[in-house]
């Protein structure tokens, strides 16, 4: 007779230990979320969801892009983050500074941010609330969820609708030509890093004199 256990894949002790560690970390993180000092705006307060093609920037990159946005927007400036939640979360840490920010995002978990959250699906680039007036943002930061010309082109419609002029785009190095074609942006020297290494080389693109060169 066949041994029933043969069909059950056995996890190696190494994998088991790694899994246990992962669950423990997750429990600790969940614990952290409920603790008093937890900051709902900090990076990681909402876990990245790979199924939504989300990849958070490293803390350093998010800080750098947030600082750049604040400078570019100027005093009392308005900043829009399209599919760039980790930059949005960093901007929220600049509390008390003179600017305002909106997050346009497909992931409805970001609705915890209240009125600043705008549900956004790049397949419907101009399906935006009426109170988002054309050309009402001093700078738009965008990180289209997919490395495809179609996704870039549709996100570009939204960017051009919202911005008064300044654009900061983060996307793959392979998109350089399309980024120039659809948004007139050029690659910066600054290289954005992600909290997990991505296979594709990532770059920033701007259409104004930025501090990223």
Automatic annotation (TrEMBL):
GO biological process: methylation
Subcellular locations according to the entry: Cytoplasm
Catalytic activity: L-lysyl-[protein] + 3 S-adenosyl-L-methionine = N(6),N(6),N(6)-trimethyl-L-lysyl-[protein] + 3 S-adenosyl-L-homocysteine + 3 H(+)
Assigned GO CC terms: cytoplasm
Sorted UniProt keywords: Cytoplasm, Methyltransferase, Transferase
GO MF term set: nucleic acid binding; protein-lysine N-methyltransferase activity
One Pfam family this sequence matches: N6-adenineMlase
Any coiled-coil regions, as ranges: none
Domain of life: Eukaryota
UniProt keyword Coiled coil present: no
HAMAP family to which the protein is assigned, alphabetical: Methyltr_EFM5 (MF_03187)
PANTHER family hit by this protein: EEF1A LYSINE METHYLTRANSFERASE 1
Name listed for the protein in its UniProt record: EFMT1 methyltransferase
Species name: Donacobius atricapilla
């Amino acid at each position: 007779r066949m041994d029933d256990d043969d069909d059950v894949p056995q996890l190696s002790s190494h994998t088991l230990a790694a899994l246990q560690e992962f669950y423990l970390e997750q429990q600790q993180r969940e614990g952290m979320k409920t603790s008093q000092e937890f900051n709902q705006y900090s990076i990681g307060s909402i876990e990245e969801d790979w199924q939504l093609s989300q990849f958070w920037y490293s803390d350093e990159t998010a800080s750098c892009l947030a600082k750049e946005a604040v400078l570019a927007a100027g005093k009392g400036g308005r900043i829009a983050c399209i599919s760039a939640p980790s930059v949005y979360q960093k901007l929220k840490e600049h509390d008390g500074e003179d600017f305002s920010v909106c997050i346009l995002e497909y992931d409805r978990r970001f609705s915890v941010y209240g009125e600043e959250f705008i549900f956004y699906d790049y397949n419907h680039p101009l399906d935006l609330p009426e109170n988002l007036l054309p050309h009402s943002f001093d700078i738009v930061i965008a990180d289209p969820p997919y490395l495809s010309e179609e996704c870039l082109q549709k996100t570009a419609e939204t960017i051009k609708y919202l911005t008064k002029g300044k654009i900061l785009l983060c996307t793959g190095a392979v998109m350089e030509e399309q980024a120039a074609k659809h948004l007139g942006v050029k690659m910066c020297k600054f290289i954005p890093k992600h909290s997990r290494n991505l296979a594709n080389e990532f770059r920033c693109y701007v259409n104004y004199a930025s501090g990223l060169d």
